[in-house]
Amino acid sequence: MARIAVNGIDIEYEVHGDGSALLFIHGLGSCKEDWEAQIAPFAQRHKVISFDLRGHGQSDKPAGPYSIAQFAADTAGLLRGLGIDAAHVVGISLGGAVAFQLALDQPALVKTLTIVNSGPDATVRTLKEKFAVWMRNYIVRRKGMARLAGLIGPHLFPKPENRAERERFIERTSRNDPQVYLHAFGALIGWSVAERIGAIACPLLAIAADRDYTPLAMKKAYVAKIAGARLEVITDARHALPMEKPAQFNAVLGRFLGAGA
Fold first, then answer.
1. Backbone Cα Rg of the chain
2. Could you state, in chain order, the average pLDDT of each consecutive group of 10 residues for the chain (261 residues)?
3. Number of domains within the chain
4. In sequence order, what DSSP letters do the residues of 75-119 get, joined into one string?
5. Which residue ranges does the record assign to the AB hydrolase-1 domain (predicted)?
6. For the domain that residue 25 is a member of, what is the CATH number?
7. What is the DSSP string of 181-216?
8. For a surface tag, which of 66, 98, 203, 247 has the fewest beta carbons within 10 Å of its beta carbon?
9. Measured between alpha carbons, how far apart are the two ends of the chain, in Å?
């Protein structure tokens, strides 16, 4: 592990392997540990970089508010600080939003783009969505991060064979400072680059779990708006796809990177 100064804060990161740069961006309330099952396999052919977004893991946790554009600027600063001209970029959930923003704001830095269980728009539209946002804020403020983690974990990893992943997720999420978590959550809610995605020119792969809580129809719709983009669906899988089904996920990502290396 190492630290680098970016945009006035210190970002913690790891680098493994050698070859073309491959950057992994984790999800909300998590950290670079999201990608433990990807590091060794992909480090055989790539310089694999994982890091903690501001407010997450071992990176600095400055006062908010945060924004997706700010997360993307931090990511760009990390790549430039490491002397990387362009990277294959993979993001899950919140990390997918950051990856979209990075590809639009700094297209020269993104060689290929892989979006996992995410999309280019987090606008809250329906009463059900508004209630879900309110409820998450309420739980974090009144019950704490451990309570939130305990509620989410069984939905992400319901099967007995994923007990270890479930327990790691709960422990990892419980570490978060509640206020900092809400800053990051707030950055995502209402964010959108949906009107800009047609400008993405690099190869794009969307990887979706068939049982993810973000609709498959939404992913099909945005993929159709990006020239050359394609969608791969992994069955019997949920939101934390790279952790729940690492072999299937790694195979799909590996084929894409092999074609786009």
1. 17
2. 95 97 97 96 97 97 96 98 98 98 98 98 95 97 97 96 95 96 97 98 98 94 97 97 97 88 45
3. 1
4. HHHHHHHTT-S-EEEEEETHHHHHHHHHHHH-GGGEEEEEEES--
5. 21-138
6. 3.40.50.1820
7. HHHHHHHHTT-B-TTTGGG--S-EEEEEETT-SS-H
8. 247
9. 26
